[in-house]
Amino acid sequence: MDNDITLMLDYEYYTENKKRLKEGLIHSKDKLKKKIAVLCSGTFGETKDILELFLLSYGIEPVFYVGDYNRCFEEACFPNKEMEQFAPDIVIVHINNRGLLSRFDEASYEMLQKEEKRLEDIWNSLKNRYRCSIIQNNFEYYPYRVIGNGARSSAYGNVRYIERLNEYIDTYADNHKGFYVNDLNYLSSLYGLLNWYDDRMWALYKYPFSIDMIPVYAKSLADIIKSIYGMNKKLVISDLDNTLWGGIISEDGADGIRIGSDSPQGEMYEQIQRYLRYLSERGIVLAINSKNDYDEGISGIRSDRSVLEEKNFSKIAINWEKKDINVNTILNELNLLQGGALFIDDSALERDIVKNCFPSIKVFDSSSPADLLRDLETNDFFEYSGLTADDGQRGKYYRDNIERLNLEKEYADYDEFLISLDMECICEELNEKNMDRVLQLLNKTNQFNFLTHRFTEDKIRDIYKDKTYSTFVLTLNDRYGTNGIVSVAICNTRDDTFSIEDWVMSCRVFRRGLEYMMLLIMCEVCKVNGIGTIRGYYKESDRNKKIRHFFRDNGFIEGSFDSEEMVQEWVCKDIHGLEKGLRSLVHMSLTKR
Amino acid sequence: MDEIKTRVNKVFRKVFEDDSLNIEMETCSDDIPGWNSLAHINLLAMIEKEFDIRFDIDQIITFENVGDICKAIETLYSGD
Questions:
Q1: Complex ipTM
Q2: CATH number for domain B2-76, candidates 1.20.1250.20, 1.10.1200.10, 1.10.3720.10, 1.10.3130.10
């Protein structure tokens, strides 16, 4: 799959290329199929077509159910056979300003209460009936204020009215997982209300906003959907000279480079550094890839004027290697895939080299700092649909990993290295406390993920309640600290068979033997309960080929192949033998909670 | 009028993604597969962009064939 398709935000471009684009995109295989229902207060047809293109370009293949025009409330709140059969993964409630109960002249306390009640009825009913994720637009300001600035300063002026309604939506989102706000209020400000509304299009065709805004709106929806399924970028690889600061450090020295408010150039680079630091604090991993003498290069980062510090970077490659070699090292050491990476460099030559070697890496020109930030911003690589406590720690996890790697080099024997790590595995069941992280891990893991199912909170809650499931949530600690929760398996026991229905492990802990520990834990459960057979399943995706032979390598025998679902079954009936083989591969202690 | 028709034809080809499409003044939505309501909206929007004009609502609701559209363009378009 090529992640490197960038669609434009230009309406004309779609009108002229829609068919061609779709034909080009639909062929790439291995897409995540998702069912999306749309309840609308305006025409959705064109938006649907463009949304589909964006989703396809992100590797998601949507199937749509589009409700009848202006019947949001009825379709959400009353039994709806068609939608029940459709069983949506996501419902988009496409009500914008045009679909409000209150027109621009009707903002009042009573209307606000009515509006809030109607929306909440829609959301609650959708949640209860379909157990789906919900995407709700918040609202743009009305096209007419009538009383000018008074629309904000008087208690129920219509600007203030929209603010209150939006605040209400945000509060609902704070308290309800799986509820996502599509920020139309921001989008309409970004493009300007004068460009946003088109009264003629509304009067004629019930287009809720100008035709030119459709791609912007569709992309925003697609970005939220992408983030729900954990398909965001995870890593930024950045050059130093003329990328993180102005000038060349080997010529200008740490005091001479432009960074910070003492020069116009430095002002711009400071914005970039702030942008990247903000990302790193929110769990995006940063790495440096710079052709420089190490001491010289690092002196720029160590400078008081630099906003970014060494600790913000999980991997620093400042050397005279070719950039593509460094990129390779960075990806390998961090165990990340090229599709999850951005590369920023001011040199066209270096950019081309990286583009050629890594077709899925997103490559950016940093020679104009202001444009760079605008590009990053409009591309929404880092759309965020719910941060877990774990995210803020991610940079540290990766940094610790590099230290482990350095330690590894000191040991000739890999087992000895593993023993030296003093690893401890903590095994617990799924619970309220770890649920967020479990959900995130299930949805974000690509490489060590046997079936690449994606989970909603409701689905995981169903599993939590269902007593036929056993869940294994593993935390790995070692001499460098904790890696956090890094592996999850969801298993089901039926008729003397223990089935591994889902199993994921974070790329952070590859090659530590944790997968063998997990199998060992499963063996024990089987022995205790007198179960004679373990079944594993594998469905190939673009990104999980690494574990294609995992079950065979561990003595499982090829079972049946489900050609419809493309799932290969693996069977182990010799649990005693399996356990014996695993013992020698596991170099960690086990604590059960 | 010929110039207008030629340029309108160009827009038709783009919107229907068909480079062999040739329209006549009498051509209407029955004659072109895919000329549904959605395509109609795109068509008018793209024609407006091509000629840098804005149709009146009164005009839009009376359009029945290519000729109607071209006549409306003629009343609004003053040349480049």
A1: 0.83
A2: 1.10.1200.10
